[in-house]
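Q:
Got a chain?
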Amino acid sequence: MARLLDVTDFGVLPDRPGTDAAPAVRAALRAARADAGPVTLRFPPGDYHLWPDAAHRRELYVSNTTGDDPRHRDKSIGLLVEAAADLVISGEGARLVLHGLQTTFAVIDSRRIRVEGLEFDHAVPTVVDATVVDAGVEAGRAYRLLRVPAATLFSVEGTSVRWHGETLGSGALAWSGLDALEYTQIHDPAAGRTWRGPNPLFERVHAIRRVGERDLRIDYEHAEEPADRGLVYAMRQTTRDHPGGLVLDSSDVTLSRVRFRYLHGFGVVGQNSRDVTVEECEFMTPPGTGRHSAGFADFLQFSGCSGLVSVRDCLFDGPHDDPINVHGCYLRVTAQPDDRTLALEYPHAETAGFPQFSPGDQVEVVDRATLQVIATTTVVSVRQPSGRDHDLPLRTMAVTVEDALPSGLAGRAAVENATRTPAVRIVGNVFRNVPTRGVLVTTRRPIEIAGNRFERTGMAGVYVSCDAAEWWESGPVRDLTIRDNDFIEPGGPAIFLDPRNAVREQPVHSGVTVQANHFVLDDVPALDARSTSGIHFHDNTIVHLGKQTRDVVLHSCPEADIDAGTVH
């Protein structure tokens, strides 16, 4: 029987906004980790405020964030589970409110961990959601009246607005930036659509003044009446300095009924972990707050994982990038000291510093132009970064393998760890208010995407890549089933099989079945595929709302079995 610990026994009570709960939470987690048997750590209902001053700090290198940038080596973590086993963290009705720039939770070097019922939010989100509540022309000048959520902090500086975070214990602001910041996406609540686009709010400004606590009036140097009343401009900076959450070097980790109201920096990243489940979770801002952006970038990212990645019965609403992305990592071959040794590097600026291989792992060497396999072999030894320090180079590594390799690999080849590739189940989820794609997935093991609803994604609903030139996200798909999903008015092909091979003589992906889905389309295909063999497209229903295009578009796709299904 599991031992029960209560976080309030360690010196903190809920609903004390002036009290930093971080020291008590740290003490409670230490006690839970010290217990040899199964432990449940309970958060009673209420709000718990976590400030970065007393938070755990760890040097960590995380996929798709800031790479090896030394300014962002150390991560502040609100709830840290480290080197633990058989632990349940339970908090139905409990809300953890993070202040400053922090990772909500991290599970590191742990096994059989379950987090259930908690709600995570940030006191001051790092995305500004500005709604145009009124617009028009007065005295020969156009104007807009903007309303921001109560959680958004700002000051007017002449004809600019400074958005900013809270003042920390050091006296410094957690963050700040002017006007449109570095990135904007636009949300139309009435149409249920979100897209990336230009930001006109701060162009040709004549004057800005504050109107009450939450409103800003902007007058312009022109008389062109704005046509964007009701739209929400979601503005942010672009540095992914923290993962929103992290499951690192761990196994059998479950997130159940967790509500993520906001994730700063990036999403929840599963990295080099095995058997990760996300079930009945909600990624969405609190209703009635005027907030629409629940994430700074992706919601869920799985990099170099194994076992089974399972995401079921979740709601994904309001990210700034893709809700789910499952991939491996290609490393570029830079040199070949001998026929069994390769020098490798992380080419992308946002990914570096963590290990890729262990002795005994199977690796594939691929041609970057064709994405075809040149050689398959087994790792004997490797010199690589640890992911926890900067004692070794963070962008480069050397791997020695069992078998002799062909010569001439430097520059033209990339290497993937074929062992660290998961099976994937994405079932029963809802995706909405997404500016990009719903699901990105590239893994060679079985993939099931079933019973989901994709509502007006800005791009494809399901996107399958494989890329050794830009994002370097590997690898080939061998067994993918997409069935019983609803694709409602996607902004791009509902399903897009798009390996980034420059030379298309041979297929990259294979074994794709698209069956019994319901498509509602306007001028986009249900399936757009290239360099994929053995596609089966059967028993699907397609409804055309406006301009009709081809239902299935194929490029270099041999052995395709296509039945367009029922078309209305």
Notes: The helical segments are 22-34. The CA atoms of residues 67 and 515 lie 39 Å apart. The radius of gyration is 24 Å.
